[in-house]
């Protein structure tokens, strides 16, 4: 039996994260053999919130063998720009 691939998924939103979580669930259901470490990150509304999250995502990217995935519904372009600095695949 093969070992499951493990991916860290960040669900990022400037509100509750329900939409981003539904999107992630729908897309990730298409793939078998993946173990998901899901991290909910709701109410990312300030630069400080985004910078703290960026540090967390960067730490996961360094420690993991796989790039983290980010499902984001952030509307503010300044906050998006901060999060996009991570070594992650953003959807």
Descriptors:
four-stranded parallel beta sheet; 91 residues; alpha/beta; globular; 4 strands
| Unreliable segments of 5+ consecutive residues | none
Shape: globular
Helix content: 25-40%
Number of strands: 4
Mean pLDDT: 93
- The helix/strand class is alpha/beta
The DSSP helix count reads 3
**Strand percentage, roughly?**
15-25%
Largest sheet, order of strands side by side? 2-1-3-4
Note the gap between the termini: 31 Å
Rounded to an integer, what's the Rg over CA atoms? Answer: 13 Å
Major pleated sheet = 4 strands, parallel
Spell out the helices and strands N to C.
Answer: EHEHEHE
Describe the structure.
It is built from three helices and four strands. The protein is an alpha/beta fold. A four-stranded parallel beta sheet has the order 2-1-3-4.
How would you briefly describe this protein structure?
This protein has 91 residues and is α/β, with parallel strands linked by helices.
What are the SSEs and their pairings?
Blueprint: E1 5-12, H1 18-28, E2 34-41, H2 47-63, E3 69-72, H3 77-83, E4 89-90
Parallel strand pairs: 1-2, 1-3, 3-4
Helix pairs in contact: 2-3
């Amino acid at each position: 039996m093969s070992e499951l691939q493990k991916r860290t998924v960040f669900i990022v939103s400037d509100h509750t994260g329900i939409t981003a979580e539904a999107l992630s669930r729908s897309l990730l259901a298409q793939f078998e053999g993946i173990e998901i470490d899901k991290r909910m990150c709701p109410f990312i509304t300030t630069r400080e919130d985004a910078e703290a999250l960026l540090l967390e995502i960067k730490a996961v990217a360094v420690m993991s063998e796989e790039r983290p995935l980010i499902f984001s519904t952030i509307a503010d372009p300044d906050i998006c720009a901060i999060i996009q600095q991570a070594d992650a695949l953003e959807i």
